[in-house]
Design goal:
single chain, TIM Barrel, binds iron/sulfur cluster, alpha/beta, about 280 residues
């Protein structure tokens, strides 16, 4: 039986596809892991990918992905999979999610994988209400093939969860271990949100017992103000804390912020005029 605590991305007999029961979604999420070599172009200090390496994944075996998706969807929608493996009350397919051991859009044939999901959804008769979610750090969205993929994703009841943890160069440098300007994040967010419904996702936590700094939070709120001033059609912000232990060397330095702090910050962001969903 799957549990909400088990977010392992390995399913025996499958290379790319894995099931997860999501408490937040109240159902089963069928994950797609394109980064089978645990490679990402970022190195977030809270990342829960074991043996994470910098780099890109090998090209996806498109035929294998299509077979795996088709077979798993068949088991979920027409077989006994939900009754056998999913707790009562959560026996429904909530979404198909590109959520792997690294950034999905850096897969060399990412665009083709969107086509695979489209064909697999159609062949298995996946209900339209089931979302296709892309969890991304957004850093490759300016690439033509990725942007085209996002437009196709929109046709599959798509949703993008676009990571924006820190908006200052220093903050992103430390938390995500990347060299990224807020203007590049903003332009990629504009491309994403105009191609497909998009949520920002932001992870907040303490480092060495210290909450995110006032300067960092105020830069974040200014970024959101700019998003709203530019009329970027974002759906809102998913705010969350440390759900599981980091697999990075900084893990012992990280801890959760207090719930009341989180609720106050969520409220302050809501006051800017944006929907905020908080998962503590
Ligand atoms: S972008 Fe995602 S997979 Fe990549 S390092 Fe950050 S948390 Fe890990």
């Amino acid at each position: 039986m799957l549990s909400t605590h088990d977010h392992n991305r390995f399913q025996k007999g499958y290379q790319y596809v894995y099931p997860v029961v999501s408490r937040r979604a109240g159902g089963l999420s069928l994950g797609i892991n394109l980064n089978t070599n645990n490679a990402c172009n970022w190195r977030c200090i809270y990342c829960q990918v074991p043996d994470l390496v910098r780099g890109t994944p090998p090209a996806v075996d498109i035929e294998l992905l299509e077979r795996e998706l088709g077979s798993f969807l068949e088991q979920i929608l027409k077989g006994p999979y939900l009754a056998d493996h999913v707790p009562e009350g959560q026996r429904r397919l909530n979404d198909i999610a590109f959520s792997g051991n690294g950034e999905p859009t850096i897969a060399p044939n990412f665009l083709q994988t969107i086509g695979v999901v489209g064909r697999a959804r159609k062949a298995a008769g996946v209900p339209t209400a089931v979302k296709t979610v892309l969890i991304t750090n957004g850093s490759f969205i300016h690439r033509e093939k990725v942007r085209v993929g996002l437009e196709s994703l929109a046709d599959l009841n798509g949703e993008i969860w676009f990571k924006v943890d820190r908006v200052t160069k220093e903050g992103a440098g430390f938390i995500n271990d990347i060299n990224l300007s807020s203007s590049r994040t903003m332009s990629n967010l504009a491309l994403a949100s105009r191609a497909c419904p998009t949520w920002l996702q932001t992870c907040l936590f303490r480092v060495d017992g210290v909450n995110p700094s006032d300067d960092e939070l105020s830069a974040y709120k200014n970024f959101i103000r700019d998003v709203l001033d530019q009329d970027l059609p974002i759906k809102g912000i998913l705010l969350y804390g440390l759900a599981r232990t980091s697999c990075q060397p900084e893990a012992p330095r990280l801890s959760s912020v207090e719930n009341s702090w989180f609720e106050d910050f969520a409220e302050a962001v809501r006051e800017l005029g944006v929907v905020v969903k908080l998962t503590i």
